[in-house]
Amino acid sequence: LIGKLFRQKWKLRFAWKGGKPEQVDWLGQKNQFDLAKEVGTKHVIVVGTMTGTEKDSFLNSIGEGDGDKIVMWKRKAEVYLVNLCKAGELSYTIIHAGGLADTAGGVDPLAVGIDDHLRKLNTTRRIPRADVAQACVQAIECKAALGRSFDMSGSDDGQALGPDGLDTLLQTLKGANCDYSIN
């Protein structure tokens, strides 16, 4: 409000308690992925965030100085995981969730997409936390989720996530995955 009043661009600034995004979202995840491979894990499921293709994302701007590039570090970890999986027996599923909501799961219509296209199409970008958790659980058994990276958010044109709904939602992507080369 003050920034608008004085026509100044305002950014959220704060200091992190504990690790910064580079340590948590990049190095912490990298260490987890390396350990998963070392102990013979077959499938890693990661919940990330949408806006990975948007360098000017609000999430990249918050923190200290010019921002701590939260999404950039998350994407770096995802790229590492994808490349690690190409080199071995490990598989992945990466779900880029829209804005998290504390509403009931299995009710709101959802859609999947890639490369932040849902952000351009949908007025409803929120997704219940329960639906994100349910998608993770379904990804364990869903063959269509193996080796996949996709966005997921609320959508007026989507469908509620039922017991086997992840497979149905992923079919709408026709095999497409997020393109990490654009980062």
List the helices and strands and how they pair.
Elements: H1 2-5, H2 21-38, E1 43-49, H3 58-61, H4 70-86, E2 91-97, E3 99-101, E4 110-113, H5 117-121, E5 126-128, H6 129-141, E6 148-154, H7 165-171
Parallel strand pairs: 1-2, 2-6, 3-5
Antiparallel strand pairs: 4-6
Helix pairs in contact: 2-4
Walk me through this protein's architecture.
- The protein has 183 residues and is of the alpha/beta class.
- 37% of the residues lie in helices and 17% in strands.
- The protein is built from 7 helices and 6 strands; from the N terminus they run H-H-E-H-H-E-E-E-H-E-H-E-H.
- The protein has helices at 2-5, 21-38, 58-61, 70-86, 117-121, 129-141, 165-171, and strands at residues 43-49, 91-97, 99-101, 110-113, 126-128, 148-154.
- The strands form 2 sheets. A 4-stranded mixed β-sheet has the order 1-2-6-4, with helices on both faces.
- The longest helix is centred in the first third of the chain and has 18 residues, at 21-38.
- It is globular and about 40 Å long.
- The protein starts with a helix and ends in a 12-residue tail after the last helix.
